[in-house]
Amino acid sequence: MSETESSVPHVEQRSIFARLVRFGRATLSIALDGALPPLCVSCRTPLGNPGGLCPACWSRVSFIAPPYCERLGIPFAYDPGPGILSMEAIADPPAYGRARAAVRYDDVARDLVHRLKYGDRLDLAISIGRWMARAGQELLEDADALVPVPLHWRRLWGRRFNQAAVLAKAATSNSGLPVLTGALRRVRATPQQVGLSRNARAANVQGAFAVTQDGRTAIYGKRLVLVDDVLTSGATVDACARTLLRAGARNVDVIVFARVVATVRVPI
Ligand SMILES: [Zn+2]
Hints:
The protein has 268 residues and is of the alpha/beta class. It has 12 helices and 6 strands. Helix 12 (235-246) links the parallel strand 5 (223-231) and strand 6 (251-259). The protein is globular. 40% of the residues are buried.
């Protein structure tokens, strides 16, 4: 599958990831040297092990665990038994198959995403990617490749890297699944989704994505996992999944770091 990846080159993201790996190794070697203790990825408190959170930060992260909706991964208030779906999944089924998120989107998650995106804290991606791989383990086991949700080039230019691509590479570092960074393209710059209603969000991303020429071959007949940092209404990943399925992907699942959970659902 490395052939597929090399046919969809993305030099910039690769060099970022190389930096990330180098940084991880450097952190590890520093820790082994005992010159400097490893630090909490969120608050920079000295720690016993590298790449983790201090007990105080750890206790503030809301990890999502079963029971949850089999389809959307929305946590349930109690365990209704296997295979039960949420009201949202039945009333308004998404184009993608299943979605899983590592944590609930709250103040701590927002802080971690912000540090990852704007603070050049790429070491965070190693920990976040590990949490995502654990949350989406069964999806990754069924997948042929990962596809990060793309940024428009103008935003990529401003930020220098696509956090979804960095997270996809970190999440797949153990499984070795290929990450198709150039398969999907954002063809229309979309205004920020923040503050938009659910319907407005869906309209906002309508027709915003396209499969590239190289991507067409890479994704055809493949079981894909879309990767993004945050899932709010799901409109963005839904638009991406629709685009990939129309271009011939066999199925599309979704793994994100954090998802908005309005309230804990009672299963129906
Ligand atoms: Zn901390």
